Structures are given as C-alpha cells and as structure tokens.
Amino acid sequence: MFILNNLSLVFPHKVCFQEFNATINVNNHIGIIGRNGYGKSSLLRIIHEKLGDNISFLVPQIISDYPELSGGERFNKKLSEAMAIKPQVLLLDKPTNHLDYSNRYSLLRMLEKYNGALLVVTHDSEILRSCIDIIWYINNGEISVFNGKYDKFLLENERKLNGINKKLLEIKHKEKNLRIKLQKEQERQAHSITIGKKYIRNKKWLKAVGDLKAMSSEKSRGKILQNLSNKKSDLLSSRAQIFIPKENLPKFSFPDSSDNSCFSIVNGAIGYSKGNFILENIDITLNQSLAVIGPNASGKTTLVKAILNDPKVFKTGLWNVPKNITYLDQHYSTLNPDKSAIETIHEISNLSNTEIRRFLNDFLFKKTEEINVPSRYLSGGEKARLCLAQIAISTPSILILDEITNNIDIETRDYIIDLLKNYKGKFIIISHDNNFLQSINIKDIYNLKSESF
Q1: How does DSSP assign 25-54, residue by residue?
Q2: Tens of pLDDT along 28-39?
Q3: The pTM is what?
Q4: Residue 326: C-alpha distances to residues 99, 260, 397 (Å)
C-alpha cells in the first residue's frame, strides 16, 4: 500500500491540483485522464519522486537511449529492462505512442496481466477499457477518483450530467415564472400609485398599505431569485467537473490549399549511405490523402526525411515533391522552447496582439498566463495544439502529420478527425492508430511492410 498525502501542483500561470490524497494498493490499475496541460504527466513525476525505490517510470516520447532504434523499439527495450527488476509500481506516460499494431497488442496484454500497481497517463480508450479499474480525472484544479471501469465511469458521468441538466432546466422555468410575477406586481404597484393620486385625503392609507404589501412581496421574490441563481451557479460548477467528451472543442481548421502541385515518387530508394538502402521500389502518387503505415523500424521516419530533402538521407529515383510542405513532427521541432505562444504566432503573422489572442483562443489557449509562458513549459498536447496553430496561420501545398494523435486529449482527437475528414488540401499522415485512420476516411494507404498500396 502506498499513501499520497496533500499532493499539490501549482504554477505561476495555473493551478493543476491541490491537496490530493489517495491510497494505491498493490494490485490497483489506475488510469489518469484529463485535458492537455492539466498536470497528468507532472503528477506521475511527483509520484515517482515520492515513492522512490522499486518504481519503474517510462515516458516514451523522451527516451533518448538507443538512437539507432525506432521510437517503438526504444520503448520496448526500456520496458523490458524496467520489468526485469519486477517493480512494485509501474508508471507509464502515454505508452502506446510510437507503437505499431503488434507491439501495441503485446503491451495491452502485458498490462492486463501485470499484478503490481499500475498508473498510466493515457488518452487511449482501449487501454482505459481493458487495463484500468480506477480512474483519476484531473479537471479545474481538482482530481476526482472513480473506482470502476472506464465505461462505467462514462455512464456515471452521463447520469450525473442528465441529472444536473434536468435541475438547471427546472431552475430556468422557476426563474421565468418568478420574473413574470415580479413584472406583474411592479405593474400593479405602478397602477396603484396612479389610482392613489385620485383618492381623497382620508383614504390615502389604502394606497400606503397596498404599496407596503407589494414591496414586501417583491422583496421576497427577489430573495427567491437570488437563491435560484446561487443554486444554478453551484450546478454549473459541478457540471464543469464532469468528464464530457467533445465539450469545449477547439474551433481551429487547417487552411484549404488551392495549390495543385503534383507529388510523386517513381522507383525510389532511400538509405543513409549509397548502396545501403532501407527502402527500395518506392512508387507513390499523392492524390489527396495518404497514410504511411508499417511496423516499428520499417522506414517511416526515413521516408519523411527524404520527402523533406534531409541531406543525411541518400535517395535515388524520380522525386517530384513541392517545396511548400508543412511538417508537424512528433517532437514539435518547429517550436522555439524559449518563445511563448503569442511570440510564436507573432513571428509568422502580421496579426496584432489582440488578434493573436483571439486566434489562440480557438486552440484552447484562453488565459493570459497560458499564452505568455515559454513553450518549454507546455505539455505535449499543448505543444501539439500550438504546432497546429502554426499550420493554420499558413497555407501549405502539402501537410505531413507525424503521429499527430500521440499527445492530444480525447476531445481534441475527435475534433481533428472532423477537420481532416473535411479538409480539401493534400496531406500525408504517419500513424499506427488504425481507428484514427479509419475515422478520417483516408483515401490511400502505403504499407511499408509490403512497400505497396
């Protein structure tokens, strides 16, 4: 048993959570969820520091050992090393990032059978459904704990949401009826004043009594309205704490390019030295959307580097590739870690500060502190959204999106699905996420396992 007592995470620009208390039993499988930037990964780091020995902590996106291996291969090697010590607690931060289908399946089966304490930060609904029995939900500066499976968590949230919405509707009707009654009383009071002026002197007391009664009734109804307003405020606050997929989605969209530049590779081959090719017989024509898939270490990253004309990659064949390509890579290399969100957009646009703030608001950067903090302090998902903002400010001939779903929260993922389904420009996407590719109605798939469509 491990006890967490009064854990808090507060930054100058935001409060992630305060005074969180929890008990972790040896067989608990805990899923940590919440929107990007709410402190999920930081919570794992704090727990790692507090619990100390016999703890394995893996963050796939920052594993730098074994540079000769792909991202998925690095994670598998580090996971094997971590499991070799038989840890009592296993901490994983978005573990399915970079994993191909086979390795992803193996990870899920291993996590299901793991008999130690497991804490996973993930946006992956399959992990949440199959490997998790306790949900920690971070939202609005609090962590709420739900003991139960993810689907039951969603059903309970739906039940709570329906109950709150029903109460809000009842309050709305009561407020409407009270305001109508108040208006009628005010009208009667005004009418009694007009009539009172016509009364003879010895009957003025009738008017005074009527006015007092009306004022007393009006004051009473005003108190009732205030109480209803307070109840409504409490209910709205409670509703804000409920996990509701697709609520408060960002409003951004990728720009539609009118550039009809051709993209084709004929009889291509790529590698890092002449004659030592990783991929050969590459034949690709991009019509609108293309998914590049394949196992870890099959050459997806090298192919992207060749398309981007990386001087380290040796290539042969006929490459007809436009110059105006925008690339969102999985490490967010387009961001300067010392630049804030507002500075990042200012460098590539002629927008005023007010216009930039309004623009970033569509990418869920709503607070002054969030847009002014250097990007090195942003979460992975926040960095992804800022990179998307960079794309949305320009109009590229072709988009290349590399594992775009790795760090984004569930709500942002759903919205990206919607915008890619409706995007009219050309794009290439590298992904291991079959459900995501099916959801965006991808036109063509190039499988590096078989090197064919």
Answers
A1: -TT-EEEEEE-TTSSHHHHHHHHHHHH-SS
A2: 999 999 988 889
A3: 0.73
A4: 24, 15, 8
